[in-house]
Amino acid sequence: MKEKPDQTLEDQATEVRAAMFWWTVICLISFPISIYWLGFVFSALWAWFIVPLGVVAITPWHAVGITLLMLLPKSSQVAEINLRISELKSMLLDEVSSDAEADDTELEKVLLLGQQKISECYILTVSAFVAPLVAYAIGFICHRGM
């Protein structure tokens, strides 16, 4: 987000809050889609490389379940991410909106943190679709070479 010369810190805070809101909406919409996409890729790779060995084929929903079982040990990382998000929300929504006389340096720190978290959300959202796509492409090439 580029700073406009006539834009106040409060205006920037409003823009950051709006961006956070829309990224939250995008994440909520893309989460189920990315889960199914991951299951589809997992089941395709399973069909290409495991089924020829004599194992039963699985559906994308079975693949989602297997993936969730593999991710279960990482649930503490998810809890840590949720904690960071709640801390960020409290910083942006409570401190900035309730403190009308906020110090400019403190407000700039909050804005910088908000912009950083928005960038992280963007990267996580894109990688949820790109990483399985890359795995699918590599698996497809390997499958064709068999």
Account of the protein in words:
The chain is mainly α and 146 residues long. The chain has one domain (11-145). It is 82% helix and 0% strand. The protein is built from four helices and no strands. The longest helix is centred in the C-terminal third of the chain and has 42 residues, at 104-145.
Strand residue percentage: under 5%
Poorly predicted regions are none
- Please describe the biggest sheet, giving its number of strands, its sense, and whether it closes into a barrel: none
Number of strands: 0
Overall number of domains: 1
Taking all residues together, what is the mean pLDDT? 77
Report the structural category: mainly alpha
Helix fraction by DSSP (H/I, runs of at least 4): over 70%
**Shape by Cα distribution:** elongated
Radius of gyration: 21 Å
Count of helical stretches: 4
Order of helices and strands: HHHH
- N-to-C span: 48 Å
List the helices and strands and how they pair.
Layout: H1 9-49, H2 60-71, H3 75-98, H4 104-145
Quick structural summary:
The protein has 146 residues and is mostly helical.
Give descriptors for this structure.
single chain, 146 residues, mainly alpha, 4 helices, elongated
